[in-house]
Design a protein that fits this description.
Blueprint (H helix, E strand, L loop, with lengths): L5 H7 L8 H10 L4 H16 L6 E5 L6 H4 L12 E3 L2 E4 L2 E4 L5 E7 L8 E7 L9 E4 L5 E5 L6 E8 L3 E4 L6 E6 L5 E5 L2 E5 L11 E4 L2 E3 L2 E3 L5 E8 L4 H17 L5
Parallel strand pairs: 7-15
Antiparallel strand pairs: 1-17, 2-5, 3-4, 4-17, 5-14, 6-11, 6-17, 7-8, 7-14, 8-9, 9-10, 11-12, 12-13, 15-16
Helix pairs in contact: 2-3, 3-5
């Protein structure tokens, strides 16, 4: 006797596909109804959980749904750290894009709420150019966290819970990249799976300034605006090298499902 697949049986009795509870909470909050988008986000949640990354996430913005109202929600917990948008930002099915002049967002995640010895910041950019800071915050004479996937000197520049600016070579900003630290002395920068470990980088006290996107929050002021389109944003605890590689793969699977991987 041929056994019918569960999804087919669901359709016969009027039910729909079964989604992870955390994915469903996100769909409900953000009003996501498109099946392709729901399937992609659901797989994103399942992959993060399978690789033990879900519990390391503070905020993950899947930038799905095509509007400011849907893009603002945090997949890890839709009731917290919703994005607030300012200036001119273009929202579409492929992501969210600042204008390089006044468009930015506030994650509402304060620097001093992050663990100084265990933090990470990353995003998926769909554009290759040299303008602006992608994510970050810093205060006067104190540490911060930021990432600029490619600057005019072809470097990926970062602060990683420190006031020291670190860099690795970068000739392409259309990728998944960011930084992390898992202890008080070493930081890791990454562009896809290419990593640079930098030792003897001590942590410093951090302020209550919140992390901005499409620019840097410099002591409460948005500066160095970026116009790169963002299609996923991650803020979390420290990542191992294996975690980074898994996140890169998970992002590619997610973006491919939405036909926006470049």
């Amino acid at each position: 006797m041929r056994v019918l697949p569960f999804s087919y049986l669901e359709q016969l009795d009027g039910g729909g596909p079964s989604y992870d509870a955390d994915a469903q909470a996100f769909f409900t909050a953000a009003g996501i109804t498109n099946t392709t988008e729901k399937n992609a986000v659901n797989q994103l949640v399942l992959d993060l959980k399978a690789d033990s990354l879900w519990e390391k996430g503070i905020a993950l913005y899947p930038v799905v749904g095509g509007t400011a109202d849907t893009h603002k929600y945090n997949l890890i917990d839709p009731t917290t750290f919703q994005l607030a948008f300012y200036g001119t930002i273009t929202h579409s099915s492929t992501g969210m894009k600042g204008n390089g002049t006044n468009g930015y967002y506030d994650t509402n995640i304060a620097l001093n709420t992050l663990d100084k010895d265990s933090a990470s910041l990353a995003l998926y950019s769909r554009e290759n150019n040299t303008n602006g800071v992608d994510l970050g915050a810093t205060g006067p004479t104190v540490g911060g966290i930021q990432t600029n996937l490619r600057n005019g000197s072809n470097n990926h520049t970062n602060r990683v819970m420190s006031d020291t600016v670190l860099s690795q070579s970068s000739t392409n900003s259309a990728l998944f990249g960011g930084n992390t630290r898992t202890n008080s002395t070493t930081a890791t920068l990454f562009l896809n799976k290419t990593k640079s470990d930098i030792s003897n980088i001590s942590v410093t006290n951090n302020t209550g300034y919140t992390i901005y996107g499409m620019c840097i929050n410099a002591s409460g002021n948005p500066l160095v605006y970026s116009s790169r389109e963002q299609a996923l944003v991650w803020i979390g605890l420290g990542l191992t090298n294996t975690d980074i590689d898994n996140l890169v793969d998970i992002n590619q699977t997610y973006q491919t499902a939405l036909s926006r991987f470049v």
